[in-house]
Every structure is written in structure tokens, then in C-alpha cells.
Amino acid sequence: MDAVAVDESTFTELTARHRRELHVHCYRLLGSFEDADDLVQETFLRAWRARAEVRDDALRAWLYKIATNACLDVIRSRKRRAPYLQPYPDTLLDELSPDEVLVGRETIELAFLAAIQLLPPRQRAVLIMRDVLEWPAADTARLLDLTVVAANSALQRARATLRSTQWTPAKPSGDEQALLAGMIEAHEHADVDHFVRLVRDDIRVSMPPSPQTFLGVRALRPLFDIAFGPSGMGEWRLLPTSVNRTPAAASYLRRPGEVGFRPFKLDVFRMDGGLVTEIHTFDARMFDDLGLPKELACR
Questions:
Q1: Which has the minimum average pLDDT: 81-90, 97-106, 183-192?
Q2: CATH fold for the domain made of 8-164
Q3: Element (H or E) spanning 162, and its range?
Q4: Which candidate, 34, 31, 101, places its Cα nearest to that of 64?
Q5: What average pLDDT is seen over the chain?
Q6: Per-domain residue ranges for the chain?
């Protein structure tokens, strides 16, 4: 491939087949679905400008190098600002072709992403390339312009930091869909007792981008009063969905005096041992990406 032989149409065709996997890669590095959109566009722009540098048989690795460096630039520019973790629709993860990297839950779940955001930029990149994408040490070093020794050293430090966060992959049971259905039923019927039976006593609830976290069932009582109390917000309808390879529920709210149910929030559940252990609640901005209805009619 060279600048003379490849026109814009051909270049777009060659690179577009890698769009989704590059988007997932940028998402892991940044923890942001929206930032990943921007960084994929930046990757293709940089690639077009430097298209004379690549061979056909090295296109994928070259694009990963550009995408990784573009993401590292963004991460470094953030300095100490905490990233806003966003969910990733499973419907888009399913767009990856069979010959691309399969996306397992343990490498895309929100708990893992939150843990790797604690790593310095280069260590984060090395960990993703080696332990998630399973690239060889030499290829990873080449991508990051490191020696193999330096890349391996960064990997060991990254693994040690990840262990110190006490993150472990969830051990879901086979009845996740039944548990999700129970959570939806409890929410729609404002049944607090049913909800409490389905969650672990030390449940952790977050509402990104707010830094506030609720720990334990007792801490959730004020939220129950707001959502389900006599002067509550209204009537709820929920639809099951999935993001980051984990169960989720899209909540629609019909306020008093309104006709239809409007998008309100997205709850993402972490389940372990037959109970819900974490809930991450997001606003409704990703409903379109999830292919969810814009409104639900009354039953």
C-alpha cells in the first residue's frame, strides 16, 4: 500500500473492517464510549495522512499502533481527572467478526475497566495488549516503541497493581436471566422487600458520573423512598438488555399526568453467587445505541 496506489475510497474500505475492534480497544483504554467514537475517527485521520507508511500485511497492527498512541495522548492530557466510565452495548460487541478477538465478560465488564483506569497510561496499554488481546511480547513492545524487557517490566507492574485493587472476575450462576427478571419485577411493582431478597447485604451502587457510592442495603433506603414512596416519581416500566456482557435493565418512567413512559435510566448489574452485588446506574443517553424504544405506551 502506498499514497499513490490507494485512493480515499479504497483506504476507507480497507480500514472500515477494523472499526469495531478499534472502537472496543479505545473504549478499554479510555473507559468512555463517546471518547472511543472520537478516537477511532482520529485514528483513521492519522492513518490517512500517514498511509504511505504501511504494508497490506501489517495494516491491522499499524492501526492498533495509531489508535493506542492517540488514546495515550488523551489519557496523559487528562492528568488526574477521573474518567467517566460508560457502558458498551452488547449489540455492538456482537458486530465483531469471527476472525476478530472475542470479547469475554472479564475483559469488558465495568469493574475491570474501573480497575485498569488506575494504571499509568503505558502500563494500561501493555496490560490490554498482552493479557486481553494476547499479543506477543515482541509485537507489544514494537507497538509502544519499547524494548521487550521494558514491555515485560511494565506488564508485571500492571499485573501487581491490578491484584492490589482486589478486582476478580465475577462468578455468575446460570440463573442470571431469572435474577434480572426478578429485579425488573421488584422495580416495576415498587416491591422493596423483593428487591432486598435479590441483592447481597453489602451491595454497592454507583451513579456515574457522580462520585457518590451507596454501600449496603441500609444506605439505599433514601433511594427507595424517592423512587417508590407515596410521593414517588411515578410509574415504572423496565426492559431487559445487556451491556459489557452483563445483564442490564432500561427504565422508563411515566410521571403523574403523562401519557407514555419516557427513557429515564440504565441499570447495569454485577451478579455473583445468585445475588446482585453491584448496580451502576447511568442516564438514558445510550438508549439509541442499545436499540431501545424512544417511548413506551401504557399497557
A1: 97-106
A2: Butyryl-CoA Dehydrogenase, subunit A; domain 3 (1.20.140)
A3: helix 148-164
A4: 101
A5: 89
A6: 8-164, 176-286
Q: Which pairs with CB-CB distance under 8 Å and at least 24 residues apart come from 181-185?
A: 181/240, 183/249, 183/267, 183/269, 183/276, 184/238, 184/240, 184/249
Nearest-angstrom CA–CA distance, 64 and 24:
11
Cα dihedral value 194, 197, 198, 199, nearest 10: 120
Grid cell, residue 121, equals: 497510561
pTM of the model: 0.88
pLDDT of 298 reads 78
pLDDT tens for each residue of 219-265 = 998 888 888 876 678 899 999 999 999 999 999 999 988 889 999 99
Distances (CA, A) of 39 to 28, 44, 80, 229: 12, 9, 20, 43
Lookup: cell for 13: 474500505
Spell out the residues 6+ positions from residue 80 whose beta carbon is closer than 8 angstroms to its own: none
Asked if 253 and 233 count as a contact pair (C-beta separation under 8 A), the reply is yes
Q: 76 Cβ partners below 8 Å, 6+ apart?
A: 121
- Its CATH class, for the domain covering 176-286, is alpha beta
276: cell is 446482585
DSSP string, 231-247: T-S-EEEEEEEEETTEE
